[in-house]
């Protein structure tokens, strides 16, 4: 285990559903991230939080809404998703969001949008 | 934009042999490089890293080599074992841009 826990591990949802992904890190890190991993594509950075403040938003559609209530928890709220949003969503944390810090990943949530 | 690429998408290695996974990067300003291993059903796991002021770094059974002249990074795994089967990602980082991941190389082990 890396110290980053994601729930649920698998999620199937319809395009009209609302669901949330949860991430919790037990490493005392200050930065948390959401990444999207699609088949045969590099990891895509979605959001970066540092000390509960969003420091980066990589032009992600508004149907993805992050929330960081404290430095240990990160959520990704999903609403009216499209089938092309089906992917593995990975949460990660690092000591801080500066360069040169290694990322610690959770096991991901495998999302299928029907 | 900057990109990180891998020379081969798949690599098959005989158990017990050494594995070499290659990676090319294009941002000459990148100063930190990381290798991750992702097993099926799991998230990427940190293996080893190297900063641009070094050209070689060794861990347990793994060695990372950095050639800044040709912007090339490699991961060497000694005495490859079945548990080494996974997808391996390289990533580059710099103070001027966010971390960029490669597409990954799938390593399979022949018994």
Please explain how this structure is put together:
The complex is a heterodimer of chains A (114) and B (111). Chain A is an all-beta fold. Helices cover 0% and strands 56% of the residues of chain A. Chain A is built from no helices and 11 strands. In chain A, the strands form 2 sheets. In chain A, strands 2, 4, 5, 6, 9, 10 and 11 form a 7-stranded mixed beta sheet that branches. In chain A, strands 1-3-8-7 form a 4-stranded antiparallel beta sheet, with no helix packed on it. In chain A, 34% of the residues are buried. By secondary structure, chain B is mostly beta strands. In chain B, 0% of the residues lie in helices and 58% in strands. Chain B has no helices and 11 strands. In chain B, the strands form 2 sheets. In chain B, strands 2, 4, 5, 9, 10 and 11 form a 6-stranded mixed beta sheet that branches. A 5-stranded antiparallel beta sheet of chain B has the order 1-3-8-7-6, with no helix packed on it. In chain B, β7 and β8 form a beta hairpin. Chain B is globular.
Short description:
By secondary structure, chain A is an all-beta fold. Chain A has strands at 4-7, 10-13, 18-25, 31-37, 44-50, 53-57, 64-70, 73-79, 87-94, 104-105, 109-113.
Write the layout of secondary structure elements.
The complex is a heterodimer of chains A (114) and B (111).
Chain A: E1 4-7, E2 10-13, E3 18-25, E4 31-37, E5 44-50, E6 53-57, E7 64-70, E8 73-79, E9 87-94, E10 104-105, E11 109-113
Parallel strand pairs in A: 2-11
Antiparallel strand pairs in A: 1-3, 3-8, 4-5, 4-9, 5-6, 7-8, 9-10, 9-11
Chain B: E1 4-6, E2 10-14, E3 19-25, E4 32-38, E5 45-51, E6 56-58, E7 62-67, E8 72-77, E9 86-94, E10 97-101, E11 105-110
Parallel strand pairs in B: 2-11
Antiparallel strand pairs in B: 1-3, 3-8, 4-5, 4-9, 6-7, 7-8, 9-10, 9-11
């Amino acid at each position: 285990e890396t110290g980053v826990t994601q729930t649920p591990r698998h999620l199937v949802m319809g395009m009209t559903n609302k669901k949330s992904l949860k991430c919790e890190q037990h490493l005392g890190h200050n930065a948390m991230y959401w990444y999207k991993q699609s088949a045969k594509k590099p990891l895509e950075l979605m959001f970066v939080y540092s000390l509960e403040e969003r420091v980066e938003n990589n032009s992600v559609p508004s149907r993805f809404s992050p929330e960081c209530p404290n430095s240990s928890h990160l959520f990704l709220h999903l609403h009216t998703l499209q089938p092309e949003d089906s992917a593995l969503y990975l949460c990660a944390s690092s000591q801080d969001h500066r360069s040169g810090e290694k990322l610690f990943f959770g096991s991901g949530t495998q999302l299928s949008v029907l | 934009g900057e990109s990180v690429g891998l020379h081969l998408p798949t690599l098959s290695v005989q158990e017990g042999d050494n594995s070499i996974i290659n990676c090319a990067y294009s941002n000459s300003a990148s100063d930190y490089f990381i290798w991750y291993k992702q097993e099926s059903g799991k998230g990427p796991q940190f293996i080893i890293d190297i900063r641009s002021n070094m050209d070689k770094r060794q861990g347990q059974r793994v060695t990372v080599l950095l050639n800044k002249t040709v912007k090339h990074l490699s991961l060497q795994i000694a005495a490859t074992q079945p548990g080494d089967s996974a997808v391996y990602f390289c990533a580059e980082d710099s103070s001027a841009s966010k971390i960029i991941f490669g597409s990954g190389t799938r390593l399979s082990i022949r018994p």
